[in-house]
Amino acid sequence: MNAVLYRVEDRPPAPMTLILAVQHLLAALGGIIAVPLVLASALHLDSPSTIALVNAALLGSGIVTIIQCKGVGPIGIRLPCVMGTSFTFVGAGISVGMEHGVAGILGSSMAASLIMIAGSFFMPTIRKFFPHTVTGVVVAMIGLSLTPVAVDWAAQGMGGQAYGDLSSLAVAGFVLALVIAFVQWGRGIVSASAIVLGILIGYAVCVLLGVVDFAPVRQAPVFALPKPLFFGVSFPVSGIAAMALAYLVTIVETTGTFMALGVATGVDISGKALSRGILCDGIGSAAAALISSPPVSTFAQNVGVVTLTGVASRHVVALTGVLLVLAGLFPVLGALVVTIPQPVLGGAGLMMFAMIIAAGVRMLGKAADSRRSSLIVAVSIGCGLAVTMRPNLLAQMPDFIREIFGSGITVGAMAAVLLNALLPGQEREPVHEEFPVPENAEAVERSSC
After folding, report:
1. What is the per-residue pLDDT across 89-123, written as a single tens digit (0 to 9) for each?
2. Which of the ends of the chain has fewer CB neighbours closer than 10 A, N or C?
3. Whole-structure pTM value
4. CA 183, CA 197: separation in Å to the nearest integer?
């Protein structure tokens, strides 16, 4: 991992802040847009409805990102945390939407978010189940689960006829080499913005080669106002139950992501900090439903950006939230980012996600060297990878089982927590002091000086 160039409370110069914020935007935007597009396709929505859903997702993600980074009273973890629509909710969302439409998805999400809001108050207790060994497993599983995504990007998308095309792999390899070079030999802003520089150069090369499709830019509206309750809301009991399961899974995944973010930023994540972050996820998802957005959660891929670049400033990522809001209001901006070829994103993504794995390995290296720890690590990562690499493993299981255990991160985390609790000689986690959080703008200024 790079040394931390900018700590959580640091404020880089304005031009650098903008470049670094764009870097996080490029890492997150594709994932944020993908969820509403998948839902729209599955539910056969018309073009205006699809545009409204995408715009709402960008707007909701941006607003909750700002709150998560800056904090509002007891809400928000106040770390460089990008929020976005989550694939954890796609399965439940499609099943609810098929019967009750988008209104059922939004209403179910709003009602079921109470699970996450209530769960936030138990995070100080839950934090005790995450000593070094368990946290290391979860951080490593986040990287291991995301790496196949980057590989598919590099190979031009799973399922396509061009998958593994040599030219696509060459572009991805070129971008990967650029990012490595910028991180290793760059200084200052070059090293800190290695990802955005690699993507921009790779994108420019693809434009020169004539492989960039600008149709999304031509088709996207320049400006679009948000449309609260555009689809309406309804509260089917079956839909609320399905979404509640997805929120339970999200609590586990988000806890792991926050722990990984703590490693990347050099901040000890206390139970109170987890409570503020999870509370923001829950309230943010409920508020997002009011503006017609699917539920939001913490984006693990942006932890890779922090890990790789050493830029841990929450103020940088808060600006990313502002850019997401602008992308929601000016869809043409988001459409321009969507034109970046997948192999370009794959080259940068492979580096980002692999760095998360490295962070997890370093954490495991600090854990106790014992047969007990080895068992926890081996079984947990093995179970997590089984689901990640062979998702059809659960194909014959009931829907609620697939909903809970469909994520390798969740399976790995649950296995590690369970083994750590059951095996004799439970690892003791040192007591962490609550990291200081400014209570007002003046305190922020003082702490950043």
Report:
1. 998 999 999 999 999 999 999 999 999 999 999 99
2. C
3. 0.88
4. 11
